[in-house]
Amino acid sequence: MEKTSVKAVQDEYPDDFAWCYGCGRLNEAGHHFRTGWQGEQTVTVYTPEQDHTAIPGFVYGGVIASLIDCHGTGSASLALHRKNGHELGDGAEPPRFVTGSLHVDFMKPTPQGIPLKAVGVVEEIHPKKWKVQTEVFANDTLCARGEVIAVVMPSNFVDKQ
Amino acid sequence: MEKTSVKAVQDEYPDDFAWCYGCGRLNEAGHHFRTGWQGEQTVTVYTPEQDHTAIPGFVYGGVIASLIDCHGTGSASLALHRKNGHELGDGAEPPRFVTGSLHVDFMKPTPQGIPLKAVGVVEEIHPKKWKVQTEVFANDTLCARGEVIAVVMPSNFVDKQ
């Protein structure tokens, strides 16, 4: 399995929005999830750390939820960026999304020590609201299914709170 | 706000099931969520680390999802333990749950640097399946709502996969 996306949307987020613990390239302590296109689907590949345990030998659900979360916002960013006429690497900054809601169904215990592959399908449900449905595989085993409602981050996001 | 639950169910999980990255007392790298009763509700108080950033100044959603997840399984454990005639500290090992599904609605950005309080209501929907509805507060602000379906861990959980 490929270990990473060659071109990832998180590599091109503006610096101010690149501190996410899940997917921010500037957050040294974080997971560094990287999300890119694979055909019409989006893909994030991540190998959990040894400490990310649920019970010994299996991956902690909170890390799987985190993977689905950032994969969701990243996938929505990729899709809106494309809708806006851009592709990664063309110099335009991709739009940044926040998570409105997150749902995860844990189908099977997820084995540790192998790369997890999150595969997403993105659908626009409103110009500023996108739904991302994700399946997380360990090798060929479907371990979790997720759905994220991702919302375009308002430009005055922080000031508004 | 109280900083921790005086008696927490995670303090009494069997050693083999105390390695969870979210709430395992034996996982040195983990969050060490601790869940106890407060009247008829369950409570987990946790202050995210400085690295747990979404955007600077606000808490990463994956950590909030993790808090809701372990608060859910811990709350279900507390409730079934009580149904079985036990209270924390009486020497009986509480039952261990796994997460069937996790849902989080992010209501407001969650400020960093203050303790988060997850408050849960537990409902039995099947002898082996419990629903936990949780609200997460930063001071008096409701930042997230969550629902966990927690399932009693089969005794042969790992062997069955």
TrEMBL record, chains A, B:
InterPro entries: HotDog_dom_sf, Thioestr_dom. The lineage of its organism: Bacteria, Bacillati, Bacillota, Bacilli, Bacillales. Signal peptide: none annotated. Residues 57-141 form the Thioesterase domain. Transmembrane segments: none annotated. It comes from the Bacteria. This is Thioesterase. It comes from Pseudobacillus wudalianchiensis.
